[in-house]
Amino acid sequence: MSLPPGFLDELRNRVSISQVVGRKVVWDMRKSNQGKGDWWAPCPFHHEKSASFHVDDRKGYYYCFGCHAKGDALSFVRETENVGFMEAVEILAREAGMPMPARDPVAEKKADRRSELAAVMEEAVKFFRMSLSTQGGAAARDYLARRRLSADAQARFEIGFAPDGWQGLWDALRAKGIAEDLILGAGLAKASTKGKAPYDVFRNRIMFPIRDARGRCIAFGGRAMDPNDNAKYLNSPETELFDKGRNLYNHGPAREACGKGGRLIVAEGYMDVIALAQAGFGGAVAPLGTAVTEDQLRLMWRIHDEPIIALDGDAAGIRAALRVIDLALPLLEAGKGLRFAIMPGGQDPDDLIKAEGREAMERVLDAAKPMVDLLWQRAIEGKVFDSPERKAALDKDLRAHIKRIADPSIKAHYGEEIKRLRAELFDMRRGPAPSGSYAPRTARGAGRGGWVAQPVHPLPMTRSTALAAASDERVTDRLREAMVLAILTTHPVLIAQFESQLEKVPLSDPTHDRLRSLMLLHGHESPDEISERLLAGAGADLEKLMGLPHVRTAPPVLKREDADLARLCLAEELAKLAAERAVRAEVAEAMEDLEGLADEGVTWRITQATTARNRAKQSKLDDTSDMGEDRAALSAQLQAMIDGEIWRKRKN
Predict the structure, then answer these.
(1) Whole-angstrom Cα distance, residue 596 to residue 599?
(2) CB of 569 within 8 A of CB of 555?
(3) Whether residues 521 and 484 fall in one domain
(4) Partner of 98 at 20 to 30 A CA spacing, among 308, 457, 524, 608?
(5) Contacts of 249 (CB under 8 A, 6+ apart)
(6) 128 and 76 within one domain
(7) How far apart are CA 522 and CA 531, in angstroms?
(8) How much is the pLDDT for 552?
(9) Which residue range(s) make up the domain with 60?
């Protein structure tokens, strides 16, 4: 649904963000200034005791100085309520007393049809619930009692029973005046091929209503009472309401539970979800009779950043877990992962909770393994690596899986973990010999033994500096980070223009990160206001930053009136910073391959990465204007400092 121009602006103007946020936090009244619309509280997005979460009522924005969460009233509702964009708009519109805009006629007609189908489904829920309490539902009630489903659980999940007849539901719905095409369209009945009246899809089954995130019944799952039935579990066919690959059982309640801090547990079936909910694990869902799909996986990640896959501990459950891994690898993003809780002894969550109680399930969930562990276990399960050929086959298998990961950072971390596990498996890890001790040598040309050289320790003056504690790469990053922040400090009007790049770039220095947070928080104010905010919030840090040798002589810092020069220099430094880190990640991954996971593409990858870095270093330095000369001077000055290792103390 599209919203008319100005609707969201009007909605934001009518809604007070402090009132929206105030439902979820406790304001720190000592730090807040109500008259100015300046509010502070502990952050609702991460656990803390201090009030680092700031809400500006006049601008309608919030920002956390701890976890860097930021946004407006809509994004706050989306994050805290675990709802989508349009749902958040509807929630705030109701609160503001604004009617939602009308849909176009075609969309309106389609929405009306879906509403009618949903109403038919609700009538079916009532029919199945009533049938469970009749004499014909006695066997179903006995079965539920044996499975220890309490009356409260049956009511909570609206469990019902489909009688053993061909047209019980059909006749009941037709008696209420519901049109035949709606009953058929809802997937509750099928047309007869023999010229007779349509017949019920579900017969002699315990019925589980399936509801969408908005709470509408969109389908049913039915468990056969007859052990000889061809299908033990049967789901509704796909309809205008129901797409089994895009929905989850217990989606709405699980989303609400996870929004309150609960874990998202993905079980195999309806009974597992109900057992988990009865035991206090409200954030439980299940796929709908099929293997987990890509859409379902993305749906899970919208509910929780790290779902726990709690499939049965038998062979079929393990195979299902491995299929989820294969599906998830290309979709992984930073902060979005999976963990796997393996049920003991071939049990499912329902069995474990009934046998050993909630505590046993809690222990299994706490011991859930990261995805890389199962990936590794699958690769080595039942195999012996007693020859180079077998080891090479393992390398090839692992390399193929890791290459499927799209995110370069995650790919690098997976490579590091696989390298560690591989080293442990082949006993390749060796601890360093003590300094100055006698240790055997195995290199060509060495005798029976030799002395391990005593490392040269830094002088006390050098050791006391902050830069000496870091690696060369980190020092390089800090020099470039300082230049970026210095340019933005001198030309604060550029903060808003480069906001997205500034927000994404990782900063290695905590002081730099604090300055960046202040800039992002106030970046949309006037330049004078930004400068005042920076001085008030980080005056001492700014003084140190602007006093650095490579900063105070830099052309974009000296030429405060030349915003164009500053803009180009800033873009170049951000590009170089990103390029340096990208090439280090790529080269590190390639070097890891050389140490045991090598292939013919490694040399090409290193060459390409180095070319990319050099291209960034030479970015437009051939500009013939004065501006180009200043940029070249700045780049050369900063590169000379890096190449000269200015942080190291030299011998006289």
Answers:
(1) 9
(2) yes
(3) yes
(4) 524
(5) 208, 210, 221, 270, 273, 285, 286, 287, 288
(6) no
(7) 9
(8) 82
(9) 7-96
